[in-house]
Amino acid sequence: MGSYAYKYCMCFTRKFRSPDAQPPPDVRAAHLSVSTADGLRRFLADVQAESPADVDRILAMLTAGGPAGGIARLVNRSPAPSPPSLDDFFGFLFSPELNPPIANQVHQDMSAPFSHYFIFTGHNSYLTGNQLNSDSSDVPIIKALQRGVRVIELDMWPNSSKNNVDILHGGTLTAPVEMIRCLKSIKEYAFCASTYPLVITLEDHLTPDLQAKVAEMLTETFGDLLFIPSSDPTKELPSPEALMKRIIISTKPPQEYKEFLKAKNNHNANGNIASLAEEPSMRRLDSNADESDGKDELDEEEDEDSDEDDPKLQQDTACEYRKLITIHAGKPKGHLKDALKVDPDKVRRLSLSETQLAKATTSHGADVIRFTQKNILRVYPKGTRVNSSNYDPMNAWTHGAQMVAFNTQGHDRELRIMQGFFRANGGCGYVKKPDFLLTTGPNGEIFDPKASLPVKKTLKVKVYMGDGWRMDFSKTHFDTFSPPDFYTRVGIVGVKADSVMKKTRTIEDQWVPVWDEEFTFPLTVPELALLRIEVKEYDMSEKHDFGGQTCLPVWELKQGIRAVPLHDRKGNKYKSVRLLMRFDFVCH
Description:
By secondary structure, the chain is of the alpha/beta class. The strands form five sheets. It has a six-stranded mixed beta sheet with strand order 6-5-4-7-8-9. A five-stranded mixed beta sheet has the order 10-11-12-3-13. Strands 17-14-21-20 form a four-stranded antiparallel beta sheet. Helix content is 26%, strand content 24%. Helix 5 packs parallel to helix 6. The two termini are 46 Å apart.
C-alpha cells in the first residue's frame, strides 16, 4: 500500500493512502472453487461458460507462461500441484490478455453472399480533418486500414492540368493528393488488420481519357490483388471468404454516369431541375447526384466536351474501366420505391444520405430490408456535417444497410459505437447480419425494428472495480489537489426499447475505485445491441473529466468475470486502464 501527496493552498500537503487492487468478494468466493487440481478447468467451463476447446486453449496458454507469469501454478500438472494463490487467480481474472470480454478470432460463417454482412465503412477516407478546408492525404487512409476499415472512399477529380487524377472533396477548399499515392498506400496496408476483402468506392468526376488512366493505375498498382468479375452484371456477389486478400471496386459504370449527366442537363433545359432534386432517390442533401456526397458533378461544359469525344475512344474506355467494377452503383430511376426494387438478375449498390434513409425507413421500411437482403445499401453523413461528425448508425443497421459510412476523422460518441460494433467477429471488419434481416416470413413478413417486441434476453452486468489510471496518468491529471473521484456509466445502444444508460455511485479520492454494483438490461433485439461503458471523473465545478470508454457487441460478450480494457476518445486502447466486470444472460 502506497500513498500520494497533494499540495494545496501553496504551503500545505495532503496525503492519501493508495491501496493496491484487492479481489472483490465474488472473486474470493470463486477462488475457493479452484483450490483443487482440476478446479480451474471446472471454473472455466461452469462459471465462465468457455467451450471445451477454449478451456484447453486457455489452459495451454497459461501453462506456457508468458504474460501469465505465476498463474501457471493454476494448471500445474505435477502429481501434487500446489493450490493457486488468491493473487494469482485475481491476476488471471483481471488480465484483458488472458481473460478478455469478447473473442478475438473470426468465428462467424464467412461463406455467405457479400450482401449478408455489415461492413466497416469509411466516408471521405482521405480527409485529415473537416469536410471544407482540411488536407487530403493517404495518412488517414492508412490509419483507417490499420483499424480494420474495409471500405475506403476516394473522390476522383482531374488535376489542374487535366492530365492526371487527384483525390479531393470537390467544391471545397480541401487540398488534393495524387490518386496514385493513395493507391500505393492502400496496397501496402490493405490487409494489415484483416485478410477479408477491401472495397474501394470511387466517386467518379472524370473524363473518358482519365477513366482509362484510372483503369491502368488500378491494374498496375494492385496486380493480382484486384478482383475482376467474370460476368457483367453480377447476379450474386461472392462471399467474403472467397474474396480474401482481394481488392474490389465499386462505382457507377461510365455509360450510366453519362446518362445521368444528360438527364440532369435535360431537366435544366426544361426548367425542371427542382423536380429532379425533390426525388428522394436522385439527390443528396443540399446537393446534386445520388453518388456525389454533396459534391458538384462535372459542369455542363465538361459534359458537352465529353459527348463530342471520339465514340470509339469512349467505347474502349468504358470497356477497360467498366470491367474492373464488381459492385455497380447504378443510377436510381424514378421515385424511392422504384429505386428499392430488387432485380433478380443483378446486384447493385444504392447510396442514401442519413436524412434520405430516415425518410425511406419511415415510409418504406420493409422495402429497404428486402433490398438489402440481396443488394448493397450505403448510407453516408448529410452534407451539413462539415466538422466530420457522425450520425446514429442504429437505424441503418436495423434495416440491413451493409455500408454505414462514417467520418473516421472525428472522435464522437457515434464513432465509438461504430468501432465497438466492429470489434465483433475478431475485428475482421465483417459482421454477419442476424437471420431476421435475411429472411422473409411465409406470408412475406419482414422484421420491423419499430414494432413492440417481447424481451428475448436479459443481460446482467456487474461493475466490480477499476485500475490502471495510476500507471497511465500523472497524479494531478484528473485533480490537482486529490486523487480522482471515478464513476462508471454503463448502458445499451440498440433499438429504442432497449436503449438506456445507468451509472454507479462516485468513489471519492481513489485511484483504484471499487463499486461492486449490478445492473439489469432487458433486451428485445440482443442481436444488434451494444454495451456502452464510460468512466468519468466527477468534478463539482467543471465538466467531468474523461476516464476511458469502450463499446462491446452484446451478442459477443463472454459470460462470467471478465477484464474489460478501456480506450481513449479516439479508440486507442490504454496500456493499463481496465475494469473488472461480470456478465450473465437470462433467456426468456
